[in-house]
Amino acid sequence: MSVMDILSIPAGGFLVILLASGFLFGELLVKARGLFAVIGSGLFIMYFIYFLTDQASTWIVLLLVGGLILIIIDGKLFTTGIIAALGFVLMIIACALPAPTLLYGMLVGIAFVIGSCGSLIFTRWMPRRDYFEKITLRDQLSGEKGYNSINEGYQHLVGKEGMTVTPFRPVGTIKIDGKNYSAITDGEFLEKDVPVQVVSVDGTRIVIDKK
């Protein structure tokens, strides 16, 4: 049985689309230097050459390519995931439509979903692409990257008592448990060395009141 003959059975189409989507999306997720894109594209081309007719080939291929473009655009510009989801659905439809039977089409669609999701396994061993992490929401806001968790850094201060280190007009500095924090009053002016209490935290904004 030749490679093309594998596509004559649903299991063969399932395997081809599984690998094609896995490698193609793997190229978007990790820095594979184009190797995954070549393999994935080659498998997709083999699949479409086997099934497509002259009348249907153009718009179905455009559906697949257009869906991929929408995913890339969302990852680079919008990062909402909505446009990427639309592109993902279009690619599934493009793979399922040429299938000769309903069962074959369903298997191909399932293979596409499994393959694209399974491509995440490549991120365990290969360097990731930064822009696509925005869609998959894998960016970590950690202290090592210059971010601080508001909940961990400030929320625990609510209800704490401290002392003004500088006069408040109405912004100043307070000391709580030996640490200095920038804070603000609710419009009230305070002098230095006045006992205060944190009444609320809104983002990085610490609001205090005279105790």
Structure commentary:
This protein is of the alpha+beta class. It folds into two domains: 4-136, no CATH class; 150-210, Nucleic acid-binding proteins (OB fold (Dihydrolipoamide Acetyltransferase, E2P), Beta Barrel), CATH 2.40.50. 47% of the residues lie in helices and 15% in strands. It contains seven helices and five strands. A five-stranded mixed barrel has the order 1-2-3-5-4. A hairpin with a 6-residue loop joins β1 and β2. α3 (57-78) runs antiparallel to α4 (82-96). 31% of the residues are buried. Residues 136-151 have low confidence and may be disordered.
Low-confidence stretches: 136-151
Tell me the series of helices and strands, N- to C-terminal: HHHHHHHEEEEE
* Whole-number count of domains: 2
How many angstroms does the end-to-end distance come to?
85 Å
Helical percentage? 40-55%
Assembly context of the chains = single chain
What is the number of strand segments? 5
Mean pLDDT, nearest integer? 83
Please report the number of helical segments.
Answer: 7
Strand content: 5-15%
- Largest beta sheet, briefly? 5 strands, mixed, barrel
Please state the structural category: alpha+beta
The whole-angstrom Rg is 28 Å
The coarse overall form would be rod-shaped
* Arrangement of strands in the largest sheet: 1-2-3-5-4
